[in-house]
Amino acid sequence: MIDQLLTGFVIGLATWRLSYALTEESIFGWLRDLFNVEMVTTNMVKYSVETIERHNESTNIVGKLLSCIYCTSFWVGGGFLFTWHTGDGGEVVVWVFAIAAIAALIQDWRAPQ
Predict the structure, then answer these.
(1) How far apart are the C-alpha atoms of 45 and 74, rounded to whole Å?
(2) How far is CA 72 from CA 69, 87, 93, 109, in A?
(3) Closest CA to 90 of 103, 101, 79
(4) What is the pTM of this model?
(5) CA-CA distances (angstroms) from residue 98 to 47, 55, 95, 110?
(6) 7: which strand partners?
(7) Which of 35, 56, 107, 109 lies 20 to 30 angstroms, CA to CA, from 100?
(8) What is the pLDDT of residue 39?
(9) CA-to-CA distance for 15 and 76, rounded, in angstroms?
(10) How far apart (Å, rounded) are the C-alpha atoms in residues 18 and 41?
(11) Cβ-count burial of 111 within 10 angstroms (0-12 exposed, 13-18 middle, 19+ buried)?
């Protein structure tokens, strides 16, 4: 039971970290640009907004996916869950993102308000 809770917590942290990076951080800005997703700041809160009508439906879906952390985390979480259970080092990949999430949360906590 404790192992399952720890697994869920670790996968949850890893999912948040990669989903946040994909939808918000500059390191994946090139990917969002590729699908015409523009970051807009309104009242100190970031919103991802699609700026261009898509001609290809699959591109539209990817653009919407990358503009919503909730949508992205659903698919990233499924991928991490699959990776965790396939073995062959999959747990290591998930742990790397979970540890990165902890580091990011600590940095945000320490940052001056």
Answers:
(1) 22
(2) 5, 23, 18, 24
(3) 79
(4) 0.78
(5) 24, 37, 5, 18
(6) none
(7) 35
(8) 63
(9) 6
(10) 21
(11) exposed
